[in-house]
Design goal:
Radius of gyration: 13 Å
Order of helices and strands: HEHEH
Largest sheet: 2 strands, parallel
Structural class: mainly alpha
Strand content: 5-15%
């Protein structure tokens, strides 16, 4: 999350992805780093116990949202 915030503050588009249980933490971090409206994505928690195939599927499923987030930042 912090990497994405730092990139964005330096004009580099980024798509941060967190798991949903860290949403409040993500919002607080964005606020603390001066980007209260920073947009990021979240996936269902947990991910540590997923198989490689399940994790690959989650990644494929979120790709359209990543693309949209990056494109929205260009406008």
């Amino acid at each position: 999350m912090l990497d994405g915030i730092v990139f964005e503050k330096n004009g580099i588009p980024a798509a941060s992805i967190i798991t949903d249980v860290f949403d409040a933490t993500g919002r607080a971090m964005a606020q603390a780093w001066g980007l209260p409206n920073y947009k990021y994505l979240s996936v269902k928690h947990p991910i540590a116990n997923l198989t490689e195939a399940e994790l690959d599927q989650r990644a494929r499923d979120i790709v359209p949202q990543i693309v949209q987030l990056l494109l929205d930042g260009q406008q």
